[in-house]
Amino acid sequence: MTAEAPALTASAGHGEGHAPASGHAQRGISNPILGMLLFITSEVMFFSGLFAAYFSTRAANAPWPPDVFKDILDPLGPIIIATIILIASSFTCQFAVWSIRRGDRKGFVRNISITFVLGIIFLVMQVYDYTILFSEGMTLGSGPFGTTYFTLTGFHGAHVFGGVLMLGVILYRGMAGQFSAKHHDAVEAVSLYWHFVDIVWILLFSILYLL
Amino acid sequence: MSTSPRKRPASEALVAGGVVVLLIAIVGIIFFTGAGSELYPPKPATVQAKEVASLYDLVFAIAVAIFVAVEGLIIWSILRYRRRPTDVDLPPQTHGNNFVEVLWTLIPTVIVLYLFAISWQTLNSVDYTSVANGQKPDVQIHVLAGQFQWQFEYLDANGKVVATQTKPLGEGGGMAVPVGKKVYVTLSSGDVIHAWYVPRFLFKRDVIPGQTNNFEFTVDPAEVGQTFRGQCAELCGTGHNAMQFQVVAMTQADYDAWLAKLVEAANATPVPPPSGAPVLALDAKNIAYDNRALEVPANAPFVIAFKNDDPSTITHDVDLRAADGTTVVANQDPIAGGTTAQYSYPALPAGTYQFFCSVHPGVAAMTGTLTVK
Amino acid sequence: MATHALSPAAVPAYRGGLYEWLTTTDHKKIGIMYLINSFVFFLIGGIFALLVRTELAAPGIQLFTNEHVYNEAFSIHATVMIFLFIIPMLAGLGNYVVPLMIGAPDMAFPRINALSFWMLPLGGILLLAGFLTPGGAAAAGWTSYPPLSERGALASPGPGQDLWIVALILIGTSSILGGINFLVTIFKMRAPGLTLFRMPIMVWTMLVTSVLVVMATPVITSALVMLFIDRNYGGSFFLPDKGGTAVLYQNVFWFYSHPAVYVMVLPAMGVISEVLPVFSRKPLFGYKAFIFATAGIGALGFSVWAHHMFTTGAVFLPFFSLMTFLIAVPTGVKMFNWVFTLFRGQLTFSTPLIFAIGFLTMFLIGGINGAFSASVPIDFALQDTYWVVAHLHYVLFGGSVFGVFAGIYYWFPKMTGRMLSESLGKVHFVIMFIGFNLTFFPMHMLGIKGMPRRIADYASDAGWNDWNLLATIGGFMIAVSMLPFIWNVFVSLRNGKIAGDDPWEGNTLEWATSSPPPAYNFDRLPDIRSERPVFDARHGLNAGHGHAAIAAGGHGEAS
Ligand code: HEA
Ligand code: HEA
Ligand code: CUA
Ligand SMILES: [Cu+2]
C-alpha cells in the first residue's frame, strides 16, 4: 500500500460545505493513512473470523489443551521473550515516527533499523518455537488444538513478515533521504500497521497461552 | 422555477384507475381460485403442518396485499404521469414529505412485527418436543443419513434399538409411523450434511455430522394409509437426488404388526448357505465394489461373502438382475457399514447378469457383471 | 438536446492502443474493462445456466453423464454469476461514475485500482481451470459447505475445489482493495461544496457497499483459508470426526454472504435512484431518508446471517427471524421513495427508465418472497427448495441485473459519446422481462410443491414437469434477449446518434463534462449547492456565483 497522490488535486480534495475556492490545502488525514486504516479494519475482520473459529472449536473440545499437549504451551518459555521483543519493537517504531515528525532523519533511520531487526528476531524465534512443537508431535494435523494454534500464529507470522518487508522499504527510502518532517505518510502508515500486528500478537498470546 | 397546475382529462385518470382495478382483479382471481392453488402448499399431513399452512395463508394474503398496493402505485404512476409534449415546465419539485415518510416506515414496521409474532407463535408449536418437556413420546425413531440413503432405527420406550429398516426405497424401504401419535425423531449423519424433508409435512431439518438434531410430529389421523414422499434437501454429493425415502402412515395396530415383523426378521437366524456352494468374496468401499466382474458355475447355488467397508451410516447390498437391467433375480437385505453378510443366491442358468447395490442404483461403480457358465 | 461541450473535442479519449488499455490507471478505462470482463463472465455463467435448464426441462438425466457434472454446472454457474459477474459489474459501474459524480480526477489509488481489476480475470481463469483437472471443477454449490467440500473420497477429492478456494480468495482481495479505494476516494476527493449530504445516491450506495465489502469480505477469506487448511494440511476445523464443527463454516460463510447480497444490490439501487429522478424530472423523493435506509440495511445486514441456517437446529431462531423481518422496513422506505419519485412526475420512457421500472416491479416480488423465508416455520418448508431459487433470482436478476442494464443504457452515452438505439433497447427489455418471469416465477410453484434445489433429475409423477419446461423455455428467452443488446452496443459504438454532454438532462456532475470525459475528467465544475448541481446550473439556480458554466438543456423551460 504505497502512496499514490492524485495527479490533479486542483478541483478535488476535501471540502465540507465550503464555497468553491481554488488552491485549498489537504486537510485531515492523508489518503495513504486513511487507506491503511481501512486496510487494517479489513485485517481485523479477517482475524476475527479466525478467532471466532478458535473459540468455537475450543468450546466443542474438552479438555483444552488435550491431555497429550497438556503443558506444551508454556507462557514463560522462550515465547515470553519473543513477546517482549515484539512489544519493544512497537515502541522503537513509534520513536522512529516521532523522530521523523521532528525532522530527525538520523534518529528515524536508527529507530527503524532497530524495529526491523527486532521484527526479524521475532520471526526467527517463532520458527524456532515451531520446530520445538513439531518435535513434540504437535502439527497442523494433530487435531483441533494444533490446527487452531498453527493457523492463528501462522497467519500472524505472515503478517509480521509483511510488516518487516514494509519496514525494509521505508528504511531504504529513509536512508535515501526521501522522508522529511512534512512528507512521511508512508512512515505513519507502516507504523500503524506494525502496531496492529503487535496488538494482534498480544491478543493471541493472551488467548493461546494464558486463557 | 415555475410549476403549472396539470390539467388532465378525467377520462385518463379513469383509464389508469381501471387498469389498476383490473390488475387487482386478475391477481385476486389467480390467487384465490383454482389456478392460484399452485402457489399454496400441498395438503398438510401433520398437526404441525396444518399450523404452518394456516400461517402461510395469512402471510400470503398480506404479501398479495402489499404486492398489489405497491405494484398498483407503480402502474398508476406510469400510466398517469407520462410526459406530454405540452409538459414544458417542470413538475412540482417535491423533495419529500415527512408525514408520508413516517407513515411508510411505521406501517411496514407494524406489519413485520405482527408477522414475526405470529411466526414465533407457530414456531413454538412446530418446534415442540415431548422429550424437551419431560414427557415421553409415543414412538421414537432414530434416522441415520449417509451417502446416499436413509436408515430408520426403531427404539423402544427405554431408548433401545429394537429394529432397523435398511431397505432402500425401491424395495419398500422407508419409515412407518402410526397416525395420531407423537413421533419423536432424532437425526444423525456419519459423513456430510443431509436434510430430512417431507413436502407434505411442510418441514425439513438438517442432518449434520457431529450433531444430533431432533423434532416431533403427529400425523393427521385422516391420512391413514397414505404414503408421503420424502427427499434429502441438502446437497450431499453425486447421489443427492437419489436420496429419497417415504413415510407410511398406519393405524396403531398395523404399525405394531409391521414393527413386530421387522423385529422378527432382525432376530431370525439367517438361513445357512448350502454347504459346498462356491463362495465369492466382494467388498464395498467408498460406494464402489472392489470387483466388478464375477464368475460362477451354472445351475448351482452360490454364496457371496460380502463386506461393507464404508462408514456405519452407509449401507450396501448385492442384488442380481437380468443383463438388460430389468428383471430382478435376487434381492438381498442391505447391511450397514463395518459389517459382513453371507448372501446366498439360487442356481442360475448360464448367461450374463448384472449385480448391483440397490441402495446406490445410479452409481456405476456399484454395478458389475456376473458371468454364469 | 444540449451539445455544448465544456472541453473541446474530448472524443479520442477511448481510442488508444491495446497496450494503453492494458496498462491504464484511468478509472474510466478500468471501469469499462470491468464492465466488459463482467459481461463476458455473465455470458459464461449464462451458458452454464442454460445447461442446467436443459437438463431440467424434462425428468430423467439427458444432457449430463451423471449428477456430478450437473453439480459442477450449477456450482460454477452461481460462482461465476455472483463473484465474477454481478459484484464486479457493479464495482465497474461505480468505478466509472463515482469519481465523475464527486468531481474528482480519478480514484484515490489509481494503480491499486488497476491491480483490483486484473485480479478478476485471473481469478476467473483459475476457477474455470477446474474443468481441466481430474475430478472436474468445484461441485459443492456456490456455498461449498463442508464436509462435502472437504477432501473425502465421497466429498470433493479433486483439485477443482482448491482452485475454487484460491479463485475466491483472489476475487475477495480484489473487492477489498476496491472497497478501500472507493472509501478513500469518496471521503477525501469530493469537489469543493459537495458535502456528504449533497452526494448522489449512487455514491452513497457505493459508500455503504464498500463498508460492507471491507468489513465482510475478510471474514469469508478466513473461512476459505480454514477450508483450504483442512483440505491440504490435515486441519480439522470443519471435520466432526477430527474434533471440528461442521456448522462453524456456515456461520462464518454467511456472516460474509448475507452482507454480500447487499453488496450485490445496493449499487443497483443507486443506479435506479439516479435514473428515476432524471426521467421523471423530479428530485428523488426523501433523499435523506433514502440515505439512512441504505445505511440501515447495511447495519442490519450484519445481524441476519443465520436466516440461511434456520434448519440447522444450531442457531437462535427468534432473534434472526426478527432481524430479517426488520430489514423489510428500510427496504420498504426505499421502495416507496422510488415510487413517489415517479408519482406526479413527467415520465419519459427511455430505455434506462424502463429497466428501472423493471427493477422496481421485480425486486418487489423478490423482496416479498424473501420475507416468507424470514418466518421460521415457513422457511422450514421452503428452505433448499426452488422457492429459494426463485427468491434469489428475483432479487439478483430482477433486481441487480435490471439495475445494471438501466445503468448501462443510462451511462453508455457518457462513456462513448454515442446513444444506444432506443428501439433495440426496448426489444431487449421486453424479451428479457417476459423470459425472466417465465423462467423464475414457476419456481415458486415448484418450491412450494416440494421440489428441492440442486437436483439433476426429478420424479416424472411429482407434478413438476410443466413448470420446469416453462422455466427452461424462459431461460432460453433470456439468452435470446442478449442478442439485440449485444448488437445494439456494436452498432451504436460506430453509428449511434452523437450524445452530447448531457443527453438526458441529468442532475449529477458527470453530465457537466464532455462525453466521453477527458482523461482528467473536468475542465471546470459547476457550483455545487445541492445534490443536483447540473440541474441547478441548467435552471440558473446557482447563477450569480460565476461558476454556472452549463448551458441550459433542451426544452427551454421558463426558469
Ligand atoms: C441481491 C441479493 C439479495 C437480496 C437483496 C435479498 C434480500 C432478502 N432476502 Fe435473500 N437471498 C439471496 C439474495 C438476496 N436476498 C440469495 C442469493 C439467497 C440464497 C443463497 C443460497 O442458499 O444459495 C437468499 C436466501 C434468503 C434466505 C434463506 C432461504 C433459505 O435458504 O431457507 C432468506 C431467509 O430469510 C432470505 C431473506 C431475505 C430478505 C428478508 C430480504 C430482504 O432484504 C428483502 C426486503 C424487501 C422487501 C420486503 C420488498 C420491499 C418492501 C416493502 C414494499 C415494504 C413492505 C413489506 C413488508 C411489510 C414485508 N434470503
Ligand atoms: C447474479 C446472479 C445470477 C444470475 C444472473 C443467474 C441467471 C440464471 N440462472 Fe441462476 N443461480 C444463481 C445466481 C444467478 N443466476 C445462484 C446464486 C444460484 C444458486 C446455486 C447453488 O445452488 O449453489 C443459481 C442457481 C440456479 C438454478 C438452480 C440450480 C439447482 O439448484 O439445481 C437454476 C435453474 O434453473 C438457475 C437458472 C438460471 C438461469 C436460466 C439464468 C439466466 O438468467 C441466464 C440467462 C442466460 C444468458 C445470459 C446466457 C446468454 C448467452 C448466450 C446465449 C451465449 C451467447 C454467446 C456469445 C454471444 C458469445 N440458476
Ligand atoms: Cu443427502 Cu442430499
Ligand atoms: Cu441472507
Folded structure, characterized:
The complex is a heterotrimer of chains A (211), B (373) and C (559). Chain A is mainly alpha-helical and 211 residues long. Chain A has a single domain, classed as Up-down Bundle (Four Helix Bundle (Hemerythrin (Met), subunit A)). Chain A is built from five helices and no strands. Chain B folds into three domains: 107 residues, no CATH class; 134 residues, Immunoglobulin-like (Sandwich), CATH 2.60.40.420; 94 residues, Immunoglobulin-like (Sandwich), CATH 2.60.40.420. In chain B, helix 1 runs antiparallel to helix 2 and helix 2 runs antiparallel to helix 3. Chain B has four helices and 19 strands. With 559 residues, chain C is an all-alpha fold. Chain C has a single domain, classed as Cytochrome c oxidase-like, subunit I domain (Cytochrome C Oxidase, Chain A). Chains in contact: A-C, B-C. At the B-C interface, helix 2, helix 3, strand 7 and strand 9 of B face helix 3, helix 9, helix 10, helix 11 and helix 12 of C. Copper (II) ion binds next to helix 7 of chain C.
Sheet/helix structural class of chain C: mainly alpha
What's the total helix number of chain B?
Answer: 4
Largest sheet of chain C: none
Count of distinct strands of chain C? 0
- Under CATH, the topology of chain C can be stated as Cytochrome C Oxidase, Chain A
Strand order of the largest sheet of chain B: 3-2-1-5-8
For CATH, the homologous superfamily of chain C is named as Cytochrome c oxidase-like, subunit I domain
What is the end-to-end distance of chain C?
17 Å
CATH superfamily of the largest domain in chain B: Cupredoxins -  blue copper proteins
CATH top level of the largest domain in chain B? Mainly Beta
CATH arch. level architecture of the largest domain in chain B: Sandwich
Oligomer type: heterotrimer
Which labels suit this protein?
heterotrimer; B: 373 residues; alpha+beta; Immunoglobulin-like; five-stranded mixed β-sheet; 27% helix; 28% strand; disordered N terminus; C: 559 residues; mainly alpha; Cytochrome C Oxidase, Chain A; 17 helices; globular; disordered C terminus; binds heme-A; binds dinuclear copper ion
